[in-house]
Amino acid sequence: MRRLLRTAALTLLLPNLLTAQRVTARDSVWVRTTLAAMTLRQKVGQMVWPSVFADYVATSDSAWARLRTWIETDQVGGFTMSIGSPMEMAAKLNAMQKLARVPLLVGADLEAGAGFRASGGFFLPNAIDLGGATLFPPLMALGATRDTSLAYAYGKATAVEGRALGIHIVYGPVLDVNNNPANPVINVRSFGEDPAWVSRLGAAFVRGVQENGMIATGKHFPGHGDTDVNSHLALPVVTASRARLDSMELPPFRASIAAGVGAMMTFHGSMPALDSTGAPGTLSAAVLTGLLRTEMGFRGLIISDAMDMRGVLDKYGAVEAAKLAVLAGADILIQPENVTQTIDAVVAGVHEGRIPAARIDAAVRRILLSKAGLGLQRSAQVDLARVRAVVGDTVNRRLSERIAARAVTLVRDSAQLMPLTTAGAATRRILHLVVSRSTNLGAGTTFAVALGRSAGRVRTVVLHPDDPFVDPARILPLLDSSDVVVMGSYMAQQWDQASAGAPDGLGALVSAIQRRAKPLIVIGFGNPYLGAQLPQVGSYLIAWNGSRASQLAAARVVLGLQVPNRYIPIRMSISPPMP
């Protein structure tokens, strides 16, 4: 009997490449006895994961009391970790694990490495960068490199730093094929718009993560790329045929399953070709059980996208959405509006006869097997002394810089303005315009320093889209005392508008610069489709994001110290010129 239990456990886990720990016969017994000892409500609690900030809170604080309630009373099975400093994140997760009867499984959106969530932020009012974990360029930068070895290394670094912090599941890679430039929510989070390259790079990332102790999550199944509606705000509908889905959206997910991906996250959007009822993928048995489980053979964890998003709430409400998601095949419901209400809703669904008890047991068994595969029942604490030795280490930072250097893409330089380190550089006057949100305190800082070392005298002016910089007259006096203008846009895709849009007034400002016959270089540190909105700009460079590594790499290309990449993983012709 014990041998049969061990075989069953391994059958579930081996396709997921949980190489940090193999499930032993003793682990299988732990899974079986733990599941058998649980009440129905405790089982459902394992399936509901709230979100938590890695902020400092005293044990007497109401926020800590709420966490204690979730862990000790509701007995949730895990958490989604949000933002905070590395040391506080690790220490807080250790304290939370001590409260748990069954060890917690912790996931996080580490889409651009552990630094995507574990950053120390900035100290105000001096804007001092407090450091943090390694922040990588986004996945689309990997798409620009077309280098699977870099994708593997990226995943490995994410796993090593994430596990040191006490995180076990990375909600990544994003496997959506970004084939709609107007997509307001995916954009540079995707590897690109070529399903073959998204498949190769995604599978390499998965292997890098899972061969180094963490579970990877492919998202957003069955594909969030071809949308122009933000699922945080409304329900997207993808009208593509099944044949198109098979050739475009689904290949990366199939490739990640073949690579052993341990988890999948669902799409809060409707695909009538897969489910004629119009139900979003998260709530569709045809999508999660019929397609993902039965047809595609996926045996890992199915994790919902955040259950507080309007894509599921507006039509179904929180209670019904929770029941439908579990009935459809979701094992884990993350970020519900109300934790206790969500648990009660699923329990009620079982008592009502809508949700089979076997569906709950199957989900919880998968969760417990994942915990056992990671060795959490033996030790769920992390060594705080190891955090400083592992997280944000020099090797990973250099890897981030190498990826950024390989990814910086020269789209066009018809004006032949680069490199700037030509004759007369010492006396050249450079106007450096930084277009960013006021909250992005690091925008342009690294780039300006690197540029000033070699290219002449640099004057930096920061422009916030919510400021009245739409009037070019504000910049005209500065133009007259400048020889060349370098404009860096740090505006990422915006969830309240199409990502293809440029900030208001940017086109008018560019036209004003060109009327003054000032040489202009534009660099996209955020939304790469910006270049298609500014076709009149002769020199356009894509750096993919505003990390320090990407700013440094862009400066080196502008200065001629580095050869730019020429491959663009997306199409740029998406709209007419701005007026």
Structure commentary:
With 579 residues, this protein is of the alpha/beta class. It folds into two domains: 2-390, Glycoside hydrolase, family 3, N-terminal domain (TIM Barrel), CATH 3.20.20; 408-558, Rossmann fold (3-Layer(aba) Sandwich), CATH 3.40.50. Helix content is 41%, strand content 13%. The protein has 21 helices and 17 strands. It has a seven-stranded parallel beta sheet. Strand 7 (169-170), helix 8 (195-210) and strand 8 form a beta-alpha-beta unit. Helix 2 (25-36) runs antiparallel to helix 14 and helix 6 crosses helix 16. The longest helix has 19 residues, at 310-328. It is globular. The model is unreliable at 1-20, 494-501 and 574-579 (pLDDT under 50).
Number of helices: 21
What is the radius of gyration?
Answer: 25 Å
Give the overall shape: globular
CATH class placement of the largest domain: Alpha Beta
Strand order of the largest sheet: 2-3-4-7-8-9-10
Let me know the average pLDDT: 89
Structural class: alpha/beta
Strand content: 5-15%
Number of domains: 2
Q: What distinguishing features does this structure have?
A:
Rossmann fold; 579 residues; 21 helices; single chain; TIM Barrel; globular; disordered C terminus; 17 strands
Helix-strand blueprint:
Blueprint: H1 2-13, H2 25-36, H3 40-46, E1 48-49, E2 51-54, H4 62-73, E3 78-84, H5 86-99, E4 105-108, E5 122-123, E6 128-129, H6 139-145, H7 148-165, E7 169-170, H8 195-210, E8 215-221, H9 242-249, H10 251-258, E9 263-266, H11 285-295, E10 301-303, H12 310-328, E11 333-334, H13 339-351, H14 357-373, H15 384-390, H16 394-407, E12 409-413, E13 429-435, H17 445-454, E14 457-463, H18 476-480, E15 484-489, H19 506-515, E16 520-524, H20 530-533, E17 539-542, H21 548-558
Parallel strand pairs: 1-11, 2-3, 3-4, 4-7, 7-8, 8-9, 9-10, 13-14, 13-15, 15-16, 16-17
Antiparallel strand pairs: 5-6, 12-17
